[in-house]
Input
Amino acid sequence: MKVWGFVRSSSPFRRFNANWFDDMATDIVRAAASETTKVIVNDLGDELFAVLIDEARDISIKEKMLVCLRYVNKEGQVREHFLGLVHVSNANTLSLKLALESLLETYNLSLSRIRGQGYDGAGNMQGEFNGLKTFILKENSYAFYVHCFAHQLQLALVMVAKKQVEIALFFNLLTNLCNVVGAFCKQREILRDSQMIKTIEALQSGKISSGHGLNQEMALKRAGDTRWGSHYGTILRLISLFPSVVNVLKYAEEDGNNSEQIA
Output
């Protein structure tokens, strides 16, 4: 029996059924995504559009490129829709451009119809000489670049918040906490084991329920000045892991004292 994550029986028949349902659910999601994308492309029609692009990593730490379309439809309404998530071998400019062209060609779109580009401030995206922006402008001089507004707004919010001493001190403390908890493998192992024990106890007492995708392993994540909502996500993680974080801090304190005694 696997308690950490989705609880399943060790029976081969049960395991077969579970795998079959997982595969069926995946096929349904893919079919729904395909049909949704077709509706978006049909709504776009022959109109011009802008691309909004950002880089991301999946759970297996593989580089991905997220592409959204922004356009005005036949009813004069501004639309902004997710088009696709593309795996890129690396995050250099040429790989990003080839991946974008491949995705657009999949839906009979082309770089020549682009009239706007929106990225963050990363050099490989908006670099003056070797950025994706420049590569696209060389082929299409009408693809004007605009710095991602959400990225600018996030930076402005972070800067304003840091002007408040109490808020700045709080997030500095949170950063130091992430550094201490995730500094060494031993600390991360203690955090993981402590959280697993607490999850098992909660499952046995009925405080939480088991199911597919529930009770996944978590770790403290750092807040990033350029990632929208990351500060909020960091606080939520700390609240969820707080008892386990306290255990790690106790270990770090005892280990530090023992090291001083040995020295």
In short: The beta strands are 49-57, 63-72, 78-87, 114-119, 144-147. The two ends are 45 Å apart (CA to CA).
